[in-house]
Amino acid sequence: MLLLLQLLDEFKASVVAEDSAAEQKLSQLKSILLELDSLPPLCVETLSAAEERKFAMEVFEYAVILSIHQEDRDSFNRYMSCLKPYYLNYARLGKSCLTLIYADLSTISFNTNRYSRTEARNLR
What we know:
- By secondary structure, the chain is mainly alpha-helical.
- It has one domain.
- The protein has 5 helices and no strands.
- The chain has helices spanning about 1-15, 20-35, 50-70, 75-90, 100-124.
- Helix 3 (about 50-70) runs antiparallel to helix 4 (about 75-90) and helix 4 (about 75-90) crosses helix 5 (about 100-124).
- The N and C termini lie far apart (about 55 Å).
- Mean pLDDT is about 80; it is low at about 115-124.
């Protein structure tokens, strides 16, 4: 797990620095997440399940930030959706800084998508 945390720290630093290496590190982290059975949708309870879920939550939180930096709405929506089960089902993982603004980001995303659909209807 130590190597995973090191990779996560490198990813977080890359995102904060808006470094182009962030995308590659995110890809590596997502590959690792696929191997963890404790994560949704399987949610197998293991001895390290809580630690693995917290790790995954941090990966997705910084992926949200990365998508904002890249102005990539589809990625933003995808990673916000990935975060939802962690915020709703695993409250015992603790609150991160992004947990506190999750509802605001979801509202912004919803309103932006609704505005885009309304705007598209008006163009017809």
